[in-house]
Structure formats: structure tokens, C-alpha cells
Amino acid sequence: MTKFLILVTLITISFGVHADVELNDLPNKPKRVWYSLFDGKSLKGWHLFNTTSEIKTWKIEEGSLVCLGGKGPSGSGDIFTDQTYADFELRWEWKVNKGSNSGIFYHVIEDPKYKRAIETAPEYQIIDDINYPAKLEDSQKSGANYGMHTPAQSKQLKPIGEWNTSRLIFKKGRVEHWLNDIRIVNFRAWNKDWTKRKTEGKWKDYPDYGLSKVGRIGLQDHGNKAYFKNIEIREL
After folding, report:
1. Alpha-carbon distance 233 to 45, whole Å?
2. CATH number of the domain to which 169 belongs
3. Are residues 86 and 9 in the same domain?
């Protein structure tokens, strides 16, 4: 019995020291513990939408997960976590090239009836607000809940080439977007205001948009180069 207790103690200490890395491989991960979605050296844990085909439009550069900017149909290069999440807090660092566009999807539903993630998934928008070649509405700018909620005027976006830090919190329908330590979006999903924005705006022809309470996390390939690192999540 003594040897067994010592072994359990050593295992507990080991996981406590390396929790952010090793819990990514555990089948039943404890809630409220941060763990990595990207190991800094491979695409382990990620796949393309509705397929297990080889990922060719993303690569690893100096510990960053980099979108190369695919030439295929819109959304064809988006990548998604193998795991699904309900209530969570996600944090990551990102930057884009001049004029680039990308984003973070969540609660993505994969099904043959859907061609792209945007049919079901809300998006934390990532974009070059200043140099993007098309005119942007406020709900299309960095940090926005794309097509739905506009970021606050207090938003502080780093210059092109510098790393931004972001957080996305979803808990029981309450959603927060953070950018460089400032909360810039705060809303509640599925209430009257949310429904009005959905049915009268960009998503009026997408009946399943934003309805799921659980799904995958996704990184968008919008045909432009974008960089991500230190992607971590904890379930709430």
C-alpha cells in the first residue's frame, strides 16, 4: 500500500508540473486546467473540415502555426480541433500580414450538409483593419463577433507584424472577446437582441448559425497569411 501511495503521489506531481502540455492527450481532462491545442511543432489534433485529407495550406514556422493562404474555394483550408468544446476560455497570440484576413471559429458542426464552418459557427474576427483591400463594416473588423457585434472603441490593435493577444470566453451563452487585455465585445447568445441581429443581418440565410452549444474550435484560411501561437484552452 505504501508503494502504491508513493506512486500515485509521483504521478500527481508530474501532471501538476506539466499540466498545460500533457493534459492534451488525456481522455477525461479536468475542467479549469489550461492545456495546449498546438504543440508548436506539428498539426497533431487538427484536421480539415469534414475530411481527413492531408493539410497542405498550413505549416509550422519557428513554433508558430502559419496559414499559407490557400488558393481553393473559400473555407477549404480552414482547420479544426479533433475535440469538441461547450463552455470554455480560449487564449492565443496572433498576427497577420498586410491586408490579411483570418479568424477563430467556435462551436463548429461538421456534417456533409454543411460546406463551410461559417454555416454554423460564430467567429472571432482577425483582420488587418487598415490595409484590407475591401471596405469593412465595424462588425467585420478585428475582435468583432463577425457580422454580429462590433468591437468597442477602446480596442487597441498592434501594428502589422507585431503579436496580438486574444481571449474568447463562452459560458452558458455569455460571450466575451478580449484583445490585448481589453474586453471589446460582450453579449449573450440566443436572446432577443442576438436573434434579431441574426435574422435581419448576414446570417439570415443560415438557419443553423450560432445555435449549437458544443462544437469544434477552428482557424480560418481566408486565402491570406496568418500566424498563431500559444493556443490554449480550458473548459469552464
Report:
1. 13
2. 2.60.120.560
3. no
135 Ramachandran zone, left/alpha/beta (phi>0; psi -120 to 50): beta
H or E element that contains 17 = helix 2-17
Q: Which three cell numbers stand for residue 113?
A: 450538409
pLDDT in tens, the chain (236 residues): 444 444 434 333 333 333 333 334 445 556 689 999 999 999 999 999 999 999 999 999 999 999 998 777 777 899 999 999 999 999 999 999 999 999 999 999 999 999 999 999 999 999 999 999 999 999 999 999 999 999 999 999 999 999 999 999 999 999 999 999 999 999 999 999 999 999 999 999 999 999 999 999 999 999 999 999 999 999 99
Q: How far is CA 174 from CA 88, 89, 183, 220, 226, in A?
A: 11, 11, 13, 23, 28
Query: Which residues pair with residue 47 across a beta bridge?
Result: 80
Note whether 121 and 106 are within 8 A (CB). Answer: yes
Nine-digit cell at 150?
462590433
The C-alpha atoms of residue 122 and residue 188 are separated, in whole angstroms, by 13
17: CB partners within 8 A, 6+ apart: none
Domain count of the fold of the chain: 2
Report residue 133 as a C-alpha cell: 483591400
Q: Which residue range is the domain that position 1 belongs to?
A: 1-27
